[in-house]
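Reviewers of the previous submission asked for a worked example of the structure-prediction workflow described in the proposal, so we include one complete record here. The input consisted solely of the amino acid sequence. No template or homolog information was supplied to the procedure at any stage.
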Amino acid sequence: MKQQDYVLETRGVKKIYNEGLDSETSALRGVDLQIKRGEFVAIMGPSGSGKTTLLDVIGCLLKPSHGAVIVDNVEIEDLTDNELTHIRGEKIGFVFQQYNLMPSSTALENVELPLRILGKSKRVARERARGLLKTIGLEHRLDHKPSELSGGEQQRVAIARALANDPKIILGDEPTGNLDTKTGKVVLNILKELNTKKGYTIVVVTHDPRIKTFADRVVNIRDGLIDERKK
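From that input alone, the workflow returned the following structure tokens.
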């Protein structure tokens, strides 16, 4: 398979904290991973296995200590912080366990924020945000702040925010971790629909075993190394 068929790729990636010191810790120990465009991949493993570090590396939140990371055919190793910010803003949407919404802003304002950061006008940002919140069934909650929303509603707002700049890559770090079983399934169904109907590449780090019925592929990670297995 040619490189351009992958939207995310790591080659021999290592992430070492406090490298060269007595407290040196290897979170990733040589990870080779390829993710195709339009694929739904779940990364699973015990706590401390390196799965969140791997997600942060492919999401351009962390640079690897060694090895190469390629995002949409762009190798990130020599990019400046501004260039990495640009890639995150245009190519990647993030969904976190803790939602990470602005508490003093409404649902609509939270979804508008990434668009405004990239310089979109207020009118364009508001129109896009309204459309996204309607798509996920929250058009009646536009003016509610996070404290006035349930956990499931907050996570749906977070998904809408991740989609704001139409990034095509959605990275989720335990997106169902704070949700009850029923609400978690709603969130997983939304992610699956974005994958199958809209063509988004979805990569989710999770402990949730239900992900196996939604993902195209499960990547198991342990002690900073991965073992890929088909479902």
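The beta strands are 6-17, 25-36, 40-44, 66-71, 74-75, 92-96, 169-173, 201-205, 217-222, 225-230. We consider this example representative of the routine output the project will generate in years two and three.
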